[in-house]
Amino acid sequence: MQAASQFASNISAQNLSRESPLVDVKSILQLMQLQARYGHTLLLQAEGPDAQVALHTLCSLLTTLSA
Amino acid sequence: MIKLFHGLPAAPGVGIGHAFIYRTWQFTALLSSKAAVTSPEQEWQHYLTAQQAVDEALASQATHENSVIAEVFTAQRAILQDQTLLHAMQQAILKDHLPALNATHTVIHHLADLFRNLGDEYFAGRAVDILDIGQRLLKELGLPSHEQQQIAQITPGTILIARDITFSEITQLPLAHLVGIALAESTPTAHSAILARSLGIPMICTVGDAILQLLPNQTLVIDGSVGYLLVEPTTSELTTYQAKRQIEDDDRALAAEHAHELAYTQDQQWVPVLANANSPEDIAHIRANGADGVGLLRTEYLFQNRVDPPTFADQYDTYLYLAGQMEGRQLTVRAFDIGGDKPMPYLIHSHEANPFLGLRGARLLLAKPDLITTQYRALWHVAHTLGAAVDLRFMLPMISTVEEVRTVRALLDEVNVEEVAKRQSTGESLRAPMLKIGVMIEVPSAALMAEQLAPLVDFFSIGTNDLAQYTLATDRTNSSVAALADPLHPAVLRLIAMTCQAGLAAGIPVSICGEIAGDADAVPLLLGLGLQELSAPAPAIPLVKEAVRRSQQAACRTLAEQALRCEDAVAVRVLLSS
Q1: Looking at the 3D structure of chain B, how many domains does it have?
Q2: Would an 8 Å CB–CB cutoff place A32 in contact with chain B?
């Protein structure tokens, strides 16, 4: 959530392993509803001026966390 | 009147004290009649002022010297400031024209319900954090509180009984006066349980609503290592538990100091003391408790609430990660233990009148062989990848016949043949994985047939919770009879002894993974019956290791012979405490 908040883009995520709703990554309350656990597949979407950088940063963050 | 309640162990230790029934704050009942509505803008200002005040209170508590308290309040601040909450409040006050008090109540209630209905126990548990914040906001907005007057009644030696308790509530209590906490609901992963563990207050949870009927000031004994709550103990029971508490007090420092060392009996027999685990979080924490490995990984909890069964890749990644954390120590993975009482959304269950006697455990796996072959294939690959770097074992739940074991082994052998053939055709060097296969002995028929089962498997693991319930024909989830399902009943002990003898004759190890393995008092008896490995709830491990160090094998065998001749579980407990 903190990592996502530094970007201007709208960033949303969905937990494909759980059929979760699409949530706003900048909200801790929504993020928790992903119920993301190790081994789950997440779908990230970003829309806005820094969308590319945002996705790249978040993906590498998630990979590091799960390594 | 129920005499003994069973719950989940949440924080270890024995507490002896008097009951105090904490009436949890009722979220709905307190809303006063319609408050005079000022303008929506004024109500919004009202809310912002309250939010500011709560934020300041949380901020000051977020610097608490106890790191658990500090972390939880920091997380609660993040929820309070969350945009989702703020937008919902804005909508309720400025668009729906609700007074700030009612708006807060509606929004918080809605959010808490949303979380409570999440399938993952850990995230569902966060509903209590949301209610906690709501409670502070409502108090700030002028809702009367009855907490202060309740808190004043808590005197030294109190065992707190409640449906559930929020983190703020628990931190406001005079914690030094509490010698135990028993909750009808909640989970061992709740923040309240984490705090109880950090403070050394014995705690049990998920005990059931019946404990709310206890009378104030009734004498209680709580055993947080095994999950028992004993009501109005007899003089002899009280003496037993006082002694146990004394030993624990003396031992705890010593036990913690030596938790990371291997446990040898007086006559130099090493007894591996392993942990039971449900999640990656559990595995991350076992090291702190000094576990020599994981004796039971309940995999059905790893892939809960999915709409589809976990794929090979999902499972391979997960097991590889978990096995990597073990640093070469034992990891015993139990095949999915799914039954009528633990349904999975991706399996269609027909309604069963008697789920404990229905299509569960190995029976279900045989009905859906893809589940077990995919799981085994994932473990095979992990064992192949890690080679000697891991001691990986695969365990089949709820075996009741020899035929079941033969059928499952045939299925797994097919996987072996396929995987080996794949590697031969690609010319890859073949390192046959060391994946041991064992069965759980938790049905009386399996214990009685242990001699026939032993040559077919690499190890036995006795599940005493189910073994006791099936042997004594007692539903352990039915609190009016649950106390009968005592794993120390001589009938259960005889089945354990029989299983150990069959294991010894066939030269395979026999371990135990029920809650009883976490009872330090029972350790000499378990060793005397012939068990070679103990797998216990992680918090109990340091004391179990100390109990092993005090034991001497010949004396344990004598004790076991005496216990097998006892008439009932009470007599066995008396014997253990003498």
Answers
A1: 3
A2: yes
